[in-house]
Amino acid sequence: MKTTNYSDRRLEVTEAVWRVIIREGLDRTSMRAIAQELGSTTGVVTHYFRDKDELTLFALERVFENLFRDMEAGVKGWQGLERLEQMIFAVLPFAPSGIRGWQIWIAFLGYAIGRETLIEEHRKRYDSLRQMICQELTDLQTAQLIRKDIDPVLEANALIALVDGIGTGLVINAESFHPDQQRYLVQRHIKTLLAVSPTIAES
């Protein structure tokens, strides 16, 4: 996925948005609060973004851009089932810094309810994520590494649901999902996809 270049100032505003959201919640995130976070006037913020929805969408795009970048970087040098595993691992908040992205994403999702334009943007990004995982599953089926009876779309949805559950649970209770536990849950699920060899099937 190609990374878009943005002005340093717009990205600086986005970083301020993230900090305010995590500290105050998105419902209390206003153009004025962001300006205060930047130590500037509201006019500086509105110079780059017309309103809160436009700013929110831009910040959401950066969250998903970082996500897809991490996924692409995470699978480099890996093949087969390990590649799928590393792709899923890249999405999970193993490190404390990864929790920030999940906090922001969950806040955005709640804010998007009732705002069809923002909901549609969420759909587009989920579709992109689903397509990436579907392609990996299709490749694994072609290589006969996972079962032929698996529907890649349904399985991609299952993996996304697993990741969503872990990420949301961790945001609610940071002690609930240690990195080792996150890895275990993903690996346990992936094992259910494995192709059964003829020898095992006949025994």
List its traits.
single chain, 203 residues, mainly alpha, Arc Repressor Mutant, subunit A, Tetracycline Repressor, domain 2, 2 domains, 0% strand, elongated, disordered C terminus
Ordered list of secondary-structure elements with their pairings:
Blueprint lengths: L7 H17 L6 H8 L3 H7 L3 H23 L5 H12 L4 H17 L3 H27 L9 H21 L6 H13 L6 H5 L1
Describe the structure.
The chain is 74% helix and 0% strand. The protein is built from ten helices and no strands. Residues 1-5 and 198-203 have low confidence and may be disordered. The protein is mainly α and 203 residues long. It has two domains: 7-50, Arc Repressor Mutant, subunit A (Orthogonal Bundle); 60-202, Tetracycline Repressor, domain 2, CATH 1.10.357.10. It has helices at 8-24, 31-38, 42-48, 52-74, 80-91, 96-112, 116-142, 152-172, 179-191, 198-202.
The name of the CATH architecture of the largest domain is Orthogonal Bundle
Report the CATH C-level class of the largest domain: Mainly Alpha
Roughly what is the average pLDDT, rounded to an integer? 86
Give the tally of β-strands.
0
Separate helix tally: 10
> What's the structural domain tally?
2
| Low-pLDDT regions | 1-5, 198-203
The name CATH uses for the topology of the largest domain is: Tetracycline Repressor, domain 2
Structural class: mainly alpha
Largest sheet properties: none
The end-to-end span amounts to 45 Å
> Which radius of gyration do the C-alpha atoms yield?
20 Å
Query: So, the CATH homologous superfamily of the largest domain?
Result: Tetracycline Repressor, domain 2
Strand content: under 5%
